[in-house]
Amino acid sequence: MGLSLDASIALVPIAPFVAALLAPLVHRLAGPVTGWVLALVPAALFVLLLVNFVAPMTHGETLALAIGWVPSHGLDLAFYVDGLSLIFALTILGVGTLVILYAGAYLAGHHHLGRFLGFMLAFMGAMLGLVLSDNMIGLFMFWELTSITSFLLIGFDHSRQAARRGAIQALVLTNIGGMCLLAGAVVAHQLSGTWLLSELRGMEDLVRQSALYGLVLALFLGAAFTKSAQFPLHFWLPNAMEAPTPVSAFLHSATMVQAGVYLLSRMTPVLGGTEVWTGLLVTFGALTLIWGGLGALKQTDLKQILAQTTIASLGLLVLLIGLGSTAAIAAVVVYFVAHAFYKAALFMVAGAVDHEAGTREITALGGLADKMPVTFIGAALAALSMIGLPLTVGYFAKEEMYLGLVSGEWSAFLVLAVLVLGNALLAGVGLLVMTRPFLGDELPTPKKPHEAPVAMLAGPIVLGGLGFLAGILPDWFGHDVLVPGASAILGQAVESHLSLAINLASPLLWLSILTWLLGVVVFRQATRIRGALRRFDAALGWSADKVFDVCYFALVRFAGAVTRFLHHGNLEYYLVVVFLALGIALFWPLVSLGGLDWITPTAELGDWSQRLVLPDLLPYEWAVLLLAVVGLLAVLIASSRLIAILSLGVQGTALALIFLLFGAPDLAFTQLMVEILSVIILTIVMTNLRLDARDHRPFEDWARDGTLAIVCGAGVSLLLMLVLTGTLDTRLSDFFTQTSVPIAHGANIVNVILVDYRGFDTLGEISVVMGAGIAILALLRRRKGSVATPPVEAGRGGEKGQEV
User: Fold this and answer.
1) For 116, 173, 189, 688, which has the most beta carbons within 10 A of its beta carbon?
2) Which PANTHER family did the record assign (predicted)?
3) What is residue 611's predicted lDDT score, i.e. its pLDDT?
4) Residue 493: enclosing H or E segment and its boundaries?
């Protein structure tokens, strides 16, 4: 490929963004095979990682790359690959390849398919950058990019209010978490002196023993809990189901919702191992697990059912990370992979059923196995792994969860009971999803059901098959997946003990059997449980989702009230506030810093002359100054609007002459052009008004505005004269003089300052001028008023009159 192994790390997150930019063009050129073409990008990156990085990671090696970003502040765009980040990256790319294929068929014929696939690839690139970033600022940047791209994907069908609401809700909550992540990174940097996560791992004692440990922990947990939908911040995730099904399959299995899990896993060596860490993660993880499992039983929509099980699974992962034992962390790695396989497959199955049968309601589905046999096989393969039956990777995940919690301690027993109940709820839901749509009597559906296209079947079959392949090859899976991932999280070598051998005397087997039996009970009583839960919701009358709506709309109304108060549209009041603030800004420092101490009752003329330096002007300079004063007086006493506009130009011209006399011809030219354009534009705009009229102003307006004018003018004059009495600090001007030519390659210091040293400032000023010019152009082109056609009389053409 022509790239070194280290350099290829940067290619992984960058390539999807490049493909995203080209996606609309590819759609126009490739047409029906767009999904197949664009899927080559993540597939190639998957092969790149698989061939070049898996072997080093299994031997405990790590690879790092740093690209200069902001060297003056010690910031590099750093990437880091170890067992944990590699597992996440491979899962993102593997599932992403199948999702891109699926999306190409699911949205076949959609005129915005290219745009949609571009969003999906950008989403993939953001998530890859997140899991590969070593720099915490880079991590934050990619973290926010996942929020932005998910907003675009969830709200893709922006014509529907539900889609817009779901997108906004996800963006608001995850961005709050993003701000927590940024703040946490800054505080962690202040404690450790490094931005790199790989270096932070060696400073865990420094962080844990700091007085700011609680703050850092709270900020990172806030980021992780919002992103990974932990109770009570879970409610945005079901509403994200308004996105097209390919988005749901990708978002719920390997991308955004797993970002919080990744962050907690990465920070385990730094923040973990304390009572508060364990207590918070186990408590909130357990609540989320049970809440999500029960929430899934309340639903009848396949996507909503699966969304609620995702909440439960995320709670399960957070709980295991909180436990922090070797077995628990091993379970995190195995269950992450198992969940990614079966959840992406089941969402694709739900989309295929909806696509080919016209509904996702399980109460309206049945007997689809005959019409959609391949889809049913994919659903069965995935659901069996979700249930955790032997020969699936889900079985090993469940075994690892229970391992280490059979110690006999009451706390361990309580956590074990939660895990058994949570897994039973997930098993019952898995049975429900596998059987209700496909088995039993065939029910009439809005569309005549038939098998989905190959591109939509590839995902469920491949991912379901991989779940079984990993289950029947435990030695390979343990050596290449479990050991590198768990070792990277714990920071120490971990051994795999996955085996197909079944020990009838082992309590783990009997705990699994208990889980399956409870799952069967949940499945058989699903209808009754659903009714009871819905009655409970109706009696409760509120939810976190409703609380969000109340808070959000209250914030919107408050913002509207503030906007109406501050932006009332009265230009006169705007100017009063601006000049009042200017007067305060001028005199407050003068008073507080002793700038007016010379104004005393006993002050002598000599004291005044020492503190205030009056200008020593030549006669013609006094004449120009007098011209400005005359222009001012002419504006004040102008007998018409036209004379006031022209008199205003006299002051600007006098100011341009002052610039010219004191050696600033470029400023003089600029000022003169501005004045000419201002007079012309004002004259054109004012043609809509009577230019021969004079605006009458009450005395109180004269008094108010005159006082403000005198205060501001006096403040500026006093400040400038006092500045002239001090010693001029030439360090800045000397710097510009010395560096203008060698660094900026410009002999005109003023131009160099504007273009190089203040380049962004100048760009902003140009943007403001351009915006003002566009606004002026719009005003000039605006028609004086809409022309109404006379109404058509009744009886002429049989139509009533309409006003155009």
Assistant:
1) 116
2) NA(+)/H(+) ANTIPORTER SUBUNIT (PTHR43373), NA(+)_H(+) ANTIPORTER SUBUNIT A (PTHR43373:SF1)
3) 55
4) none
